[in-house]
Automatic annotation (TrEMBL):
Pfam families: ADH_N (PF08240), ADH_zinc_N (PF00107). Belongs to the zinc-containing alcohol dehydrogenase family. Its cofactor is Zn(2+). This is Alcohol dehydrogenase. Signal peptide: none annotated. PROSITE patterns: ADH_ZINC (PS00059). Keywords: Metal-binding, Oxidoreductase, Zinc. The keyword Metal-binding applies.
Length: 349
């Protein structure tokens, strides 16, 4: 079979690899029907995630059809259409029992495309399949479902819930790539007074507007002053960092009001300055986190019922064997206008 293989920083190849097989009795193997590329994959290729070894198949977001299951798997069977979660959960360790699956110490957590081979392939092995897959209702498309593998639960849990967004809040989202857009979509569930979108690309700001942001500001257009003017000089109730670079984290810390919350979603590869000399006296709360995916079932229900509209997030569609081109497009959003790219085992219409 073929897979997208990491060859070290800056190196990737769509190449032949050994077939995915059931290794543990809790495994399932899927035929990958739909897959996407994450900003974290770009961080890996940039050398920001040194735990990823050369030869690793990348990818942690997929929808597929089950082709084989281990003897201990009881909730899915061959032929089922499933969402493969970006987080694997053993279900037995302390953290899994607390629904903190991202911190699983029993062999799970974020392992797909990180510590074990991922899903940017024709077939993929899914560890702990009973707890790490979701059977898909017939009415949910693969394109919508694949957004629930990572970006929707990540934005919702690490951004909106950790940031404690409340009705009437002013929420600033710094970075309106796929994660930032998902934060905007899920922030709307809590009826904020304003959602301020900050980005350097006009195409992403336009997408943010379509998905619910009511104030748009370019990164070079003094977002700090925009937020202060909107809030009588106080600052945002919640500032969500959705990029993963020092400058955007520091901007979020500067734009939050006294008593406000900074929710960091972005994957950081370099240190950021934490100005505790300014923050401590303003009662600012800063949260970070890896997604736990405890909200995935709820979000799936909301997508099925039409409560979450994800239609603006996917901008480019490719056949699976066009993944090298898809990476090139996804990595140059300012030029291509790419938000989320989706690849299918059948050529897109």
């Amino acid at each position: 079979m073929k897979a997208l293989v990491f060859g070290g920083p800056g190196q990737r190849a769509w190449t032949d690899v050994p077939d995915a097989t059931v290794v543990e009795p809790t495994d399932a193997v899927i035929r990958v029907d739909t897959v996407t590329i994450c900003g974290t994959d770009l961080h890996i290729l940039g050398g920001d995630v040194p735990a990823v070894q050369k030869g690793r198949t990348l990818g942690h977001e997929a929808v597929g059809t089950v082709v084989a299951v281990g003897a201990a798997v009881t909730t899915i069977r061959p032929g089922d259409r499933v969402l493969a979660s970006c987080i694997s959960a053993c279900g037995r360790c302390r953290f899994c029992r607390e629904q903190r699956y991202g911190q699983c110490t029993g062999g799970g957590g974020w392992i797909l495309g990180h510590l074990v081979d991922g899903v940017q392939a024709q077939y993929a092995r899914l560890p702990f399949a009973d707890l790490s897959t979701y059977k898909l209702p017939p009415g949910v498309s693969a394109e919508a479902a694949v957004l629930l593998a990572d970006i929707l639960p990540t934005a919702y849990e690490v951004g909106i819930l950790n940031g404690a967004v409340r009705p009437g809040d002013t929420v600033a989202v710094v970075g309106t790539g796929p994660i930032g857009l998902a934060a905007i979509v899920t922030a709307k569930l809590f009826s904020p007074a304003h959602i301020v979108a900050v980005d350097k690309a006009d195409s992403r700001l336009e997408a943010a507007k379509q998905l619910g942001a009511d104030v748009l500001v370019r990164a070079d257009g003094n977002p700090l002053e925009t937020v202060r003017a909107l809030t009588d000089g106080l600052g945002a109730d919640v500032a969500i960092e959705a990029v993963g670079v020092p400058a955007t984290f520091e901007l979020c810390a500067a734009m939050v009001r006294p008593g406000g919350r900074v929710a960091n979603i972005g994957v950081h590869g370099k240190p950021a300055t934490l100005h505790l000399e300014d923050l401590w006296i303003r009662d600012v709360t800063i949260t970070t986190g890896l997604v736990d995916t405890y909200s995935t079932a709820t979000l799936l229900t909301m997508v099925e019922s039409g409560q979450l509209d994800l239609g603006q997030i996917v901008t480019h569609r490719f056949a699976l064997d066009e993944i090298m081109t898809a990476y090139d497009v996804f990595a140059r959003p300012a030029e291509t206008g790419a938000l989320k790219v989706v690849l299918s085992s059948e050529a897109p219409a």
